[in-house]
Automatic annotation (TrEMBL), chains A, B:
Protein name: Acyl-[acyl-carrier-protein] hydrolase
Xref: SUPFAM superfamilies: Thioesterase/thiol ester dehydrase-isomerase (SSF54637)
First-tier enzyme category under EC: hydrolase
Domain Acyl-ACP thioesterase-like C-terminal residues, every copy: 265-395
GO MF term (any one): hydrolase activity
Function recorded in the entry: Plays an essential role in chain termination during de novo fatty acid synthesis.
Keyword annotations from UniProtKB, A to Z: Chloroplast, Fatty acid biosynthesis, Fatty acid metabolism, Hydrolase, Lipid biosynthesis, Lipid metabolism, Plastid, Transit peptide
Amino acid sequence: MASASPCSIYCSSRVFVRCSASEGGQGYHRSSSSSNAVRVNGAAHRAPLQVGAALETSISRSLAELSSPVLPPPPAAGERVRQNIPTEKQTVDPFRQALIVEGGVRYQQTLVVRSYEVGPDKTATMETVLNLLQETALNHVWMSGLLGDGFGATHGMIKNDLIWVVSRMHVQVEQYPIWGEVLDIDTWVGSSGKNGMRRDWLIRGRNSGDVFVRATSTWVMMNKVTRRLSKMPEEVRGEIAPWFIDRHAIQEEANEKIIKLDSNAKYVDSDLKPKRSDLDMNHHVNNVKYVRWMLETLPDHFLQQHQLSSIILEYRKECGSSDVVQSICQPDEDSVPPEGNVSMVNGPSLLPEIISGHHSLADALQQWPTKYTHLLQLKAGDKHEEIVRGRTTWKKKSYKAP
Amino acid sequence: MASASPCSIYCSSRVFVRCSASEGGQGYHRSSSSSNAVRVNGAAHRAPLQVGAALETSISRSLAELSSPVLPPPPAAGERVRQNIPTEKQTVDPFRQALIVEGGVRYQQTLVVRSYEVGPDKTATMETVLNLLQETALNHVWMSGLLGDGFGATHGMIKNDLIWVVSRMHVQVEQYPIWGEVLDIDTWVGSSGKNGMRRDWLIRGRNSGDVFVRATSTWVMMNKVTRRLSKMPEEVRGEIAPWFIDRHAIQEEANEKIIKLDSNAKYVDSDLKPKRSDLDMNHHVNNVKYVRWMLETLPDHFLQQHQLSSIILEYRKECGSSDVVQSICQPDEDSVPPEGNVSMVNGPSLLPEIISGHHSLADALQQWPTKYTHLLQLKAGDKHEEIVRGRTTWKKKSYKAP
C-alpha cells in the first residue's frame, strides 16, 4: 500500500491550487487554526494554497474511466470498455514499453522523440521535457495499480483527510535530445525534509547512456477539508517511508529563495489570456503553458542565441480559464556576460569550472551562464496574486542560431 | 525505389509554400511558361505556391542528422551518433512499435494516448490527431530507409527536379480516443487523379478494433527550380505506381470546393502573431497551430457544446514567424440547428441518416451537424494572401460540457 504514495502526484502538479480570481474560492472550507501549518517555499502558505473540490471530482471521473482490467470484461449495455490500464500492480507495460524495477520503487519507460516534439533547432523543447516528466510520473502510478485509490493517499492519509500537492520543480537539461532519439526515462520517489516527498527523474539516451535531463520535484500534504498544508503524520510516514529511495537526480545545495519581482522589472507581458487549448483535463491552465508564458517574455534575439539549461518553478496558485495573467522577468545583473569586446580584464572573474575545458576565454564567455528571475501573476481585483515564481539559467548556443 | 514516393511527404505539409510577406520571395526563380501547370484546389496555382530553398536546406540538414544506421558506428571525433534511424528498409521498429506490412506498402504503429495529449474532456484533441498523422507518415518514410534520399523523390523525380507538396487534407473523427487508450495507426499511399498522390490513415482502438479516425491527404509535384506545380511525368508514374494501394480511408464524393471568405464573415480574429514555440523544425508555423487559430475563432459556448467531427484543409501558402495572421470563420446558415423549441414542424427536413438510430427527434437534433467555413490569411502590404481554407463539421456533444 505504501507505493500508493506517488499516486496522483504529478496530476496535482498541474492542478494543485485553485485560482481564486476565477473560482472565487466558493465552496472551500478554511480554518484559521495554524497549529498544523507548514512552511513551503520560504513562506507559510495557508489560504492561498487551495485544492479545489472540482479537481477531486474531475480526477475521480477519469479514474473510473481508466480502471478497467487488462483483460476487459464484456462491455455493459450502453458502455464501452476502451482502456488497458491495470488496476493491480504490474511489472511490465508492453504498450508503453515500461518496467517496474528495483522491487517496485523505480519506473522506467522507453520513448522516442517525435517529429512534433522538437523546435526549430530540431531538438526536444523544454515543453516536451515537462510533458514527458508528467507522463512517466502518471504511468508509474498507473503501473502501481493505484490510480483508483484516492489520489495516491495511503490509508493513513485518507483517515486524516490528506492529499498531495506539488510545491516546487527543478529541471536541469544537460543536452536536449534530438528528433528520433530513443530515451530511457526513470522516475522514483524519496523523502523531502520532515513533511515532504520528492519525485525525481533521469532522462538518458538509449544509445550513449548519457544523461540528458535531471529533474526533481517536491510534494507536501494538504488537508482537503481545511485546504491547509499539513505536517506528515507519523502514521503516514510509517506507510510511505519504505518506498522512498535516497537517491537524488540533482544534488541541490540549500534551496535558493526566488525573489518576488514587481512591475519595475525589465520585461513585462500583460493581458495574457489562456485559450481553451491551454487547459488540461482538470480545466486549469497546464504547467507547460506557464513555462511558455515565462519564456516568451524574454526578447527574441536572446532566445535565438541561448539555450535553457535549468528551470526552477515554485508554485503558489493555479490559474483558471478566465484569468488574465502577467508575466514578469528580470535578468540577474551579475550573470549577464560583458557586452562589446571580450578582453582579458574579465578573465579573473570567470569561475574555474566555466573556463575548464574551453580552448579560449572567448569560448568560456560563450558559455557564461545567464540567469533570469520570473513571476507569473494574475489580477484579482485591485491587486495581483502570484501563480508561480521561476528561475532560469541559460547558456549560449554552441551553434549558429538558425 | 518506388517506395521513395512518400518520402518527406508530411514534412512538406508543414512547409510547402513560403510566406511571401516574410520572405519577400527573393531568390526564387519563376517561369511565366504555363505548359506544365496543373490545377489544385480548383484553381491554377503558379507563383503563389513556392517551396523555398531554405526548406530544402533545412530538411537536408535534418536528414543528415537522422541517417545513422541501426548499429551505430563508433562516434567520430567531435561528433556523437545519437540516432537510431534505419538507412535501409526495415520491417520492424521495436522502439516505435511499428511494422511494415502488406509487402512494404502499409505502415502500422501502436501508440498510447498520453496524459498531455488530451483536452479538458479527457479525450485526445484534434491537435493530437494531426500530430499523430504527421508522426506516422514520417516514420513510414524512415522505415523505408529513404529519408536521406532527397525528400522522397524517385530517380525520375530527381532527374526532372521534382519534389512533393501537400495540397489538401481531410480528417474525419468518428470517436475521440481517451487518455490511456491503445491505438493502432495505419498509413499508406495511393494515386490521386492523373498527377497526384494520396496518403491515407486509419486510427483504430486496439481493444475494440473500432475506427476512431479516418484521414486522407493529397500531394502534387512541384518543380523545385521554377517553383511551379508539375504534371507527373510517365517515367515517374512508372516508378511509384506499384506502391500505390487502391484503398480509401474516406470515401469522398467529388471534392466540395471551399468558398473564399471575406472580412464580412461572422467571426474575425485579427492580429494573430506566431510565437517562437509555434514554429516547427522548418521554421514555419506548424499545421497544428493553423487549426488552433481556426478553431479559436469560434465562440467559446459553441466549442463547449460541440465536438469537431470533420476538418478539411486546403493549403495555399506557408506562414513564417514574422507574419500577422487573420482567422475568419462563417457558419453555414442551413446547417445551424433551429434555435428555441424543437417542434415536430422541423421533422420533414431532417435527413433520414440523421434520424436513423436515434430514439427521438430531440436526439436527432442533438446530432444535427453544424458546418463552418474558415480562412486564414496574412497581410501582405495592402492586401491579404490566403494561407489555408478550411471546412469544419461539428456535432453536439452527447454529454454535458464540463
